[in-house]
Amino acid sequence: MSELSTKHLLGIKYLVKSDIELIFETANQFKEVINRPIKKVPSMRDLTVANLFFENSTRTRLSFELAEKRLSADVVNFSASSSSVSKGETLIDTVNNILAMKVDMVVMRHPKPGAAYFLSQNVDSIIVNAGDGAHEHPTQALLDAFSIKERLGSLEAKKIAIVGDILHSRVALSNILCLQKMGAEVRVCGPATLLPKHIESLGVTKSTNLLETLEWCDVANMLRVQHERQNLKFFPSIREYSQMFGIDKKTLESLSKKIIIMHPGPINRGVEISTDVADSNQSIILDQVENGVAIRMAVLYLLASKKEINFAK
């Protein structure tokens, strides 16, 4: 298959395995491009992408912007705090006003789950979900899975642990769906209060024992505690959380095998992961950041190529 089965990237649940494989294959080609002296290709020249971030973001916004510029797209950045949204304008009106300026594609992060899907049903543009509340973050899951595949050669039958604040994490849900579609086995681990009640209905196992989980897995994806999404206290203290669910060098060295350590960022060093682990040769955190640009280039390119536009102008 040489094109995606979907018009938008709203979530991993809307992708099939062949879509993910095509994105990975395309990202491999773009990874070669971004490691060349001249890092730009004209693939999206004459197209305009609007980045709409209704929630704070550094890495995802920069990664998308860089991906768009590497593809030679024109880029418009929109911040909700300085926009008419703060004056009461609706999401649809805001986006339609932007589209009236002849924008071809919208990359959106929004605090409300389902916002990207809602937009795709109500405006005439290609929509890329850059994170919707605690629901999905599809490009993060794609770059995480791509990074594991790059290191291990395959995702088939690999054991992946997602550790930390599963309850409030859009990264966890997207990762679970993506890894399972690629044949991996997934376990979530964290305090019982941060593991969703019916998480096992997604086909994952769950554990509150970090050491046992680390012995089981090939890869541990460490998530931060999302205090900004919590209105209750889910554990006694950060210190206790770190002792029970944080990884340091001593923990890694106590294991019977070497495992890969990942983190979607931002890292709370000294809480879920120590500095010596984050910077160790078992960590692929910086690979994830590099791969994020290649994956987002692949997604944008593949979605744009479905749009009926003559690229050869």
Let me know the average pLDDT. Answer: 90
The end-to-end span amounts to 26 Å
Strand order of the largest sheet: 7-6-5-8-9
Architecture per CATH nomenclature, i.e. the level-2 architecture of the largest domain: 3-Layer(aba) Sandwich
Number of domains: 2
Structural class comes to alpha/beta
Low-pLDDT sequence parts: 227-232, 309-313
Number of strands: 9
The CATH topology label of the largest domain is: Rossmann fold
Approximate helicity band: 25-40%
Q: How would you characterize this protein structure?
A:
The chain is built from eleven helices and nine strands. The relative contact order is 0.16. Residues 227-232 and 309-313 have low confidence and may be disordered. It folds into two domains: 12-136 and 290-304, Aspartate/ornithine carbamoyltransferase (Rossmann fold), CATH 3.40.50; 138-289, Aspartate/ornithine carbamoyltransferase (Rossmann fold, 3-Layer(aba) Sandwich), CATH 3.40.50. A five-stranded parallel β-sheet has the order 7-6-5-8-9, sandwiched between helices. Strands 2-1-3-4 form a four-stranded parallel β-sheet, sandwiched between helices. The chain is of the alpha/beta class. Helix 5 crosses helix 11 (285-304). It starts with 16 loop residues before the first helix and ends in a 9-residue tail after the last helix.
